[in-house]
Amino acid sequence: MKKVILFFTLATFILTSCSSDDSDNSSSSQDLLIGTWTWHQSYFNGEEQSLDDCDKMDTIVINSDGTFNESFFYDDNGTCVSDGTDSGTWQNLGNNVYRIVYGAGTPDEETLDQTILFEGNTFYIEEVDGQFTFKIVYIRN
């Protein structure tokens, strides 16, 4: 009888150890959002909008420490000129929902909970405002 109890105790211990290892491995995977991204495409009501070369220089750098930096550019008579930067923090809330905080810790702080969808080496954000639909696509550098 003691051998049976010992067997079940060892079996339970081994199974518990294996399931614990599995969950540790999955939690250590890197978030898909981390990386450097550039503005790739823009859509309004399903129709692609043209982006100039300067628009395509707009870059978001998503860091693994929960921070991000954005750089924006515009065309000034054929020359791409910096249109400023923005920074903040991000957090994955699950189910492709991310909390984005612009200007974290400043009087201009703005918090958005945004659904971000991933397809291959791109991600996109889609917003519906009444009868209008906007979609912005970024590509991984």
Task: Report what the structure shows.
This protein is an alpha+beta fold and 141 residues long. It folds into two domains: 1-29; 35-140, Lipocalin, CATH 2.40.128.270. It is 18% helix and 53% strand. The protein has one helix and ten strands; from the N terminus they run αββββββββββ. The chain has one helix at 2-27; strands spanning 35-44, 47-49, 59-62, 67-76, 79-94, 97-102, 110-115, 117-119, 122-129, 132-140. Strands 1, 2, 3, 4, 5, 6, 7, 8, 9 and 10 form a ten-stranded antiparallel β-sheet that branches. A hairpin with a 2-residue loop joins β1 and β2 (47-49). The radius of gyration is 22 Å and the shape is globular. The model is unreliable at 1-28 (pLDDT under 50). Residues 1-19 form the signal peptide. This is Lipocalin-like domain-containing protein.
Topology summary:
Layout: H1 2-27, E1 35-44, E2 47-49, E3 59-62, E4 67-76, E5 79-94, E6 97-102, E7 110-115, E8 117-119, E9 122-129, E10 132-140
Antiparallel strand pairs: 1-2, 1-3, 1-10, 3-4, 4-5, 5-6, 6-7, 8-9, 9-10
